[in-house]
Design goal:
- By secondary structure, this protein is mainly alpha-helical.
- The protein is 77% helix and 0% strand.
- The chain is built from 9 helices and no strands.
- The radius of gyration is 21 Å and the shape is globular.
- The termini are far apart.
Length: 221
C-alpha cells in the first residue's frame, strides 16, 4: 500500500501584474464615467489644445480627475521602468517586490520634488508660473502614462519584444517632456518677463539637477 502524504496548499496571488493592470484600467473607466466631458477633451490632447486652455487653472492640479489619473501614471511608468531593467539588465519582471520598490521610489521622488518646487517657487516669486507649469507637466505625462499602460501589458506578456521598441518608447517619452517645456515657455512667457534669472535657477534646481543625480547614481550602481 502507498502512504498518502498531505502537504499544505499555499494559495496566494498567482499573477499580481494582471491584477494591477485590471485595477488601473478600472480606474480609467471610473474616471471616464465620472468626468465624461473632461475625459473626452483630455483624450483629444494630442490633436487639440482645448483641454490645456480650459483646465489651466492651478486648482485643477488637486482635483479628483488629476489625482486618480496621476496614480495610473505612476503605476504605468513603474511598470515600464521594471520592464526596461528586465530587458537591458536582466532583472526579474515578475518580481512584485521590485515593482513596489520602483513605484515607491518614483512616488517619493515626485512628491518630494513637488513640495520643494512649491518652496523654491514661492522664494523666487514665480509661484503662479510654477503651479501652471506643474499642471501642464502632469497633464502631458499622465497622457503618456495612459497610452503606455496597454503597451506595458503587451510588453509584459510578450518576452520577444525588440530592443528597438524600447528605444522608441524612451525617445518618445523624452521628446514629449522636452515639448512640454517648450510649450510652457511659449504659453507663460508673459509671466516670466523680469524673472528670467529666477526661472533659470528654478529649472536648474528642479528640472535638471534631480534627474542628473539619479542618472549618475544609477550608472555608478
Amino acid at each position: 500500500m502507498f502512504d498518502t502524504v498531505l502537504q499544505p496548499r499555499i494559495i496566494g496571488i498567482q499573477d499580481w501584474a494582471t491584477i494591477v493592470f485590471v485595477a488601473m484600467f478600472g480606474i480609467i473607466v471610473v474616471v471616464k464615467s465620472v468626468f465624461e466631458s473632461r475625459f473626452q477633451d483630455f483624450l483629444n490632447l494630442i490633436i487639440s489644445d482645448k483641454y490645456t486652455k480650459i483646465y489651466r487653472d492651478a486648482s485643477y492640479l488637486m482635483s479628483g480627475f488629476t489625482i486618480f489619473l496621476f496614480v495610473v501614471q505612476l503605476i504605468s511608468f513603474s511598470f515600464f521602468i521594471q520592464l526596461t531593467l528586465h530587458k537591458f539588465y536582466q532583472l526579474p519582471k515578475n518580481d512584485w517586490i521590485l515593482f513596489i520598490q520602483i513605484n515607491t521610489f518614483i512616488s517619493v521622488f515626485v512628491l518630494s520634488k513637488f513640495l520643494i518646487d512649491k518652496i523654491i517657487a514661492t522664494s523666487f516669486d514665480i509661484e503662479e508660473f510654477a503651479d501652471q507649469f506643474n499642471l501642464q507637466k502632469v497633464t502631458y505625462r499622465t497622457y503618456i502614462g495612459i497610452l503606455l499602460l496597454p503597451v506595458n501589458a503587451i510588453l509584459f506578456y510578450n518576452p520577444n519584444a525588440s530592443d528597438f521598441l524600447f528605444y522608441c518608447i524612451i525617445a518618445i517619452i523624452i521628446a514629449t517632456n522636452l515639448l512640454t517645456y517648450i510649450i510652457s515657455l511659449k504659453n507663460y512667457q508673459n509671466l516670466l518677463i523680469g524673472k528670467l534669472f529666477y526661472f533659470i535657477l528654478y529649472l536648474c534646481a528642479l528640472e535638471i539637477a534631480p534627474y542628473y543625480f539619479i542618472y549618475d547614481w544609477f550608472v555608478r550602481r
